[in-house]
Write a structure and sequence with these properties.
Radius of gyration: 15 Å
Strand content: 15-25%
Strand order of the largest sheet: 1-4-3-2-5-6
Number of strands: 6
CATH superfamily: HUPs
CATH architecture: 3-Layer(aba) Sandwich
Number of domains: 1
Largest sheet: 6 strands, parallel
């Protein structure tokens, strides 16, 4: 088993060619590929519900995970709380996630263009026109997010608890 493989079914990688090879394998077996992305800094029930719903839309769920440098650009110098490798390992441990792939850019548009997923999933808090890479997916689905869950709010709440 390679350094990036969690098991024969799971993949954690920053190598897009490695992901694309796995995607080609899935496509040969007529599996529908679902893609979603995010920071997933402190995993919470809202994240898990989104990922479970996304996975039900197809046969293989690929999760694009912002690298630490990307998170710092988007969220500020104190983020991420958890390093990329740790976030990726926790996410790959979820039954609904088949592959975790890192991306350095602020959006996953280039990754989505390379992968060409059958279904692209984002939270319903995004308007269709705001979803990066949507033009490279077979279909785009917006999923209503579980109310009351936010990593940023959780971090603020933890700061007040000190």
């Amino acid at each position: 088993m390679g350094a990036n493989a969690v098991s024969s079914r799971k993949l954690i990688t920053r190598s897009w060619p490695e992901l694309l090879s796995r995607a080609a394998f899935w496509r040969l077996r007529r599996r529908r590929i679902v893609f979603t992305n995010g920071v997933f800094d402190i995993l919470h029930a809202g994240h898990v519900e989104l990922l479970q719903k996304a996975r039900k839309l197809g046969d293989a769920l690929v999760l694009g995970l912002n690298t630490d440098a990307s998170v710092r650009r988007l969220k500020g110098p104190t983020r991420p709380v958890n390093r990329w490798r740790d976030r990726a390992s926790v996410l790959a441990a979820l039954e609904c996630v088949d592959a975790v792939v890192g991306f350095r850019e602020d959006t996953p548009a280039r990754l989505i263009s390379a992968l060409r997923p059958d279904i692209l999933v984002k939270g319903a808090d995004y308007a269709l026109g705001e979803i990066a890479g949507a033009e490279h997916a077979g279909k785009t689905v917006r999923i209503v997010l579980k109310r009351g869950y936010s990593t940023t709010r959780l971090i603020k709440r933890l700061g007040k608890a000190r």
